[in-house]
């Protein structure tokens, strides 16, 4: 009997959570799609995925989207948002005002998210069409999300109509900084434009100028790659190759393409490879690298720089060094405590927690059988399932440390900061002092947006405010994946300050790829020593060294042109500097002048002797003849014969 109950409730949960009846009448939007809610005076919308996919079969009828693949990391991010809202309520930050929330699952798909906006703004009434939404006062005043930039771009486009603020903690596409196109969008992170600059500065910091790039063909990858191209050029970093990988791995061509890219990486002399990819593609690529024992220095972008699934791949230590940039992060004890005791907010519900608990704690021995039923095929189900799931009486009452131990909860930091930003803006808007709030609770959302742009608060000892593009442009953390047994673990080693564009490395790195502490190299050509200059071959990073000719010099490594010596100075071939032209005087005691003087004295003496002989014998016949013939002596005899 309890067995039947467990199974039934598991099937029921699956039916409720992953299959949505096609007919409108039978569809309970609240339970099946916007599955977490708590009432409040001011309601905050949350749009984050708890499932990472919708089934993308050919779509004929406008039926509801089928979501699949429960996404633990994103689920944790949504819990951080909800937990922070609960904390603010508990602390009485807004006296007399209770914050509520309504969370809808975007399933990482823009169309799905757009469909939820209607429900968020008008509950289950249909949205009234108006010419002017200035006086539009929906229950949801702001939406926190979305996760990926392509979903945020779509949502921001629609929310512009109502000027309902959209505040993301993860969407970093540079396009979203454009406040003419996305006036209602704000984010608690800098634009990717800064991240690619940080990457180029990091390469310059380590003197790597011959690097490879692999990027995805989605909005995020293409925009970040274009931005990196410009930054690489500005920092004299050259691309050994650039490769594109298709975004959706379901594509049967993808594996073939990954193999081609892996071959390119192996055959190139570039030791440093930048991967602007989502984590599942990085995993595919690394699997190839591990199989072929290829080790490189990998630069991670925020999309995978904290990916646990990559850090825990088998033999991950074979791939070499991994460095990357991430957004601000920070652990929180109260959030970890909440994850160990997951319950919906009192008065509300959270079907995502229920789905997680049934994945983890429901007893499903049939999934271990030889022919498991189809619902067992959820990826990672086996990984998520607790080993003593069959000993629990009520799975929904169970709790453990699984989320805290398997996920990097410090990533949730900026979601908490986003909620803090909203609370601080509300405090201003609702004119709160420490005992009550006087402002109108049912305000139109554009007023909150106005207040949000002006917010300046401090949290966890850091100050936060939006710049003119609606971004938090403070800094990135530089991390390195150090070995942790057979797996890897991210360690913070420095940071990149957006305002003054400097990479700061605070911890000495032990490189895996060089087996000692000297920095690994990734150059097309060896640097030219002083005395020689670069003769560029085909690209600015590839060159031969030629020595400077006489009269020119080079005093630094890697100069493009020899410098001419200033007037009054000179140099030999291959010189690192010029020497002044000095006037030197001979000394009487030096051997050289003594020899010269001696020779000159001897010459004069000889002349004198000849002169005397001439005088003495000037009347002899041979002298008379010589007087007219030998030209050489004629000038000597001239004064004598005239
Ligand atoms: C939605 O509709 C149901 C039944 O039609 C009703 O009970 C519920 O109060 C409505 N919710 C909102 C938010 O309007
Ligand atoms: C829109 O409505 C507001 C308030 O009702 C009004 O002040 C404003 O002038 C209207 N704008 C236009 C363009 O009609
Ligand atoms: C990779 O290295 C392992 C051991 O270090 C070796 O057994 C294996 O053959 C190597 N594979 C390739 C493709 O070189
Ligand atoms: C778990 O949370 C519930 C409700 O928030 C609370 O009553 C209970 O004491 C908590 N349990 C533990 C072990 O913290
Ligand atoms: C808050 O403001 C109200 C109305 O202005 C005032 O009566 C009350 O004393 C204030 N409370 C504090 C703690 O300042
Ligand atoms: C934010 O506030 C801090 C101090 O509270 C101040 O130093 C800083 O200049 C402010 N920033 C902006 C942009 O107003
Ligand atoms: C903030 O900084 C102060 C002094 O630097 C320190 O004592 C305090 O613990 C810090 N607080 C947090 C939350 O980090
Ligand atoms: C960047 O800022 C840090 C600390 O604020 C400062 O020490 C450093 O000199 C600055 N660098 C530049 C290039 O301005
Ligand atoms: C890093 O190494 C340098 C020289 O090898 C040393 O001077 C410095 O103190 C080290 N820094 C740290 C943080 O260990
Ligand atoms: C460190 O590595 C470099 C390059 O691999 C090598 O030339 C050098 O001899 C090594 N130094 C030590 C102390 O092992
Ligand atoms: C430039 O020359 C280098 C060295 O000869 C070679 O490795 C590289 O592939 C060349 N690059 C291009 C773009 O031709
Ligand atoms: C230039 O000088 C350096 C050392 O000063 C020497 O190693 C190099 O061989 C010289 N090159 C030529 C072409 O003479």
From TrEMBL:
Keyword Cell cycle: no
Keywords: Cell membrane, Disulfide bond, G-protein coupled receptor, Glycoprotein, Membrane, Olfaction, Receptor, Sensory transduction, Signal, Transducer, Transmembrane, Transmembrane helix
Record's GO cellular component terms: plasma membrane
Nuclease found in the keyword field: no
Domain GPCR family 3 nine cysteines: 520-571
Spans through the membrane: 594-617
Compartments reported by the entry: Cell membrane
Endpoints of the signal sequence: 1-26
Membrane topology annotation: Multi-pass membrane protein
InterPro entries (UniProt xref): ANF_lig-bd_rcpt, GPCR_3, GPCR_3_9-Cys_dom, GPCR_3_9-Cys_sf, GPCR_3_Ca_sens_rcpt-rel, GPCR_3_CS, Peripla_BP_I
UniProt domain Receptor ligand binding region: residue ranges: 78-483
Main location: membrane
Gene Ontology MF, one: G protein-coupled receptor activity
Gene Ontology terms: biological process: sensory perception of smell
Family of this protein: Belongs to the G-protein coupled receptor 3 family.
Subunit structure: Homodimer; disulfide-linked.
UniProt name for this protein: G-protein coupled receptor family C group 6 member A
